[in-house]
Write a structure and sequence with these properties.
Elements lengths: L1 H19 L21 E9 L4 E9 L11 E5 L8 H5 L2 H10 L7 E5 L16 H25 L9 E6 L1 H12 L6 E5 L8 H4 L3 H7 L2 E7 L5 H13 L5 E5 L5 H12 L19 E2 L11 E2 L5 E6 L6 E4 L3 E3 L1 E2 L4 E5 L6 E9 L2 E3 L6 E4 L2 E8 L16 E9 L4 E9 L13 E5 L7 H4 L4 H10 L7 E5 L10 H22 L9 E5 L7
Helix pairs in contact: 3-9
Length: 531
Amino acid sequence: MKHFYTLLAVFLLINVATKGQKIEKEAPAGFDVVQPNIAHGKIDTITYDSKTVGTKRRALVYTPPGYSKSKKYPVLYLLHGIGGDEKEWLKGGQPQVILDNLYAQKKVQPMIVVLPNGRAMKDDRPLGNVFDSVKVQAFATFEKDLLNDLIPYVEKKFPVRKDRENRAIAGLSMGGGQSLNFGLGNLDKFAWVGGFSSAPNTKKPEALMPNPEEAKKKLKLLWISCGDNDGLITFSKRTHDYLFTNNVPHVYYVEPGGHDFKVWKNGLYMLSQFLFKPVDVAALPKYTVLGSPAATNIRSAKYPQILPDNRVIFRVKAPEAQKVQIDLGKKYDLVKQADGFWEATTDSIGEGFHYYSLVVDGVALADPASETFYGMGRMASGIEIPFRGGEYYALKDVPHGEVRMKRYFSPVTNSWRRFYLYTPAGYDVNTSEKYPVLYILHGGGEDERGWATQGKTDLILDNLIAGKKAKPMLVVMLDGNMGISGFNENAFRAFENELKQVVIPEVDKNYRTLPDAKNRALALTLPVFWY
């Protein structure tokens, strides 16, 4: 019994320590500075025969402090960018310093790091036009050189573990693209894959990971990171979006910075602490400094930002304001920073579209960083929270229809009104074809713009029709506001007259419809505000 209580006490202590452990989200100051009073690893140059290239090639190898040939080590293959060679990381990133310091703090597993030349050609120097097609192709050729020549050499000459669970690949820029392409393309060889600021050589996600379920089973960790001011971030973001949609666990780490070693050194610092250890998959979304700008932001606006756990960061400049809040149904107080910006991070927000207001000194306003939408009975800001399963309204490479706006005079209201109308792809080409019609009505506080803009009717129908899940049809998005306050019998009767006496005849007159009841449908949105 005494032994049982001792074990229980130990378990509780470990459990409390684990739960209380703070997640380190970025490298501290001095992480890349040489510490003279600690043990240091060693960097050597190796030369191996490359049957792929037909010549001898060089690489650098880092062995950790306390390296012993009597031990077995996992291996990280660390790749450079398009303008570098096997020495680029050494000159710009000092990986040996970063790793030595982490070893001293017992934050990383002992590992060997191989820094190859990823340009697999006989003259592999980064001279002349590094973007020349022959040189770019050599980066793709390196996959064969790596798998067939370099890895066998390393495993023959160094005491390394040879299974996929003990082999990792990561790289920066062009090397980041190589790492994703080669690592995810050879999951029988690599269980740990990382891309820092991956370049345009990164394959499209569907080609990169054609079988997400298999990848989920085989990957120990997939790391994608980039600086928020990096012009290449779109390649990392599209990969992340695909992984998110397919529920593949990964880290999508965004930090302040551009396409440079400040970002890449921090990436190595963070990634190396995960390698060859048990991974807490549930905690992976927490590893980021910044979120992703919301799709509903105006062009180039960095905020609001959505974090992987669906919390939202708001940052607003209002230096003269006394109080600033965000109203998302729940109000959040923003905190004023020294630079005049106000900041706050919300709770986790539910998936989908939400209206919100910026409240400055008690006045509700539209956020100038957000697109505005007619909702809540006025023009308001909106934010789209992505979610798995939301692909049905994603913009895809399918034939696209159009949303048109039609003005008409209504004798019911004695005023000019309008509706929006979706026509499917090919409507103006197949001029003899007639279509069934869906009439769809917005929610309370909205108007005919609701389904056309925030509702994304065109994308939903484009995707359904392309997937042969819906028949080509016209969709009429009309205004249910009849100038009568409230939802009462008079308002409903006026709308019924508007629909039957005006809108349906107007649609049948001006568009190629199948004008009978069996080819006509009506759908309503619940008359409540969206929050």
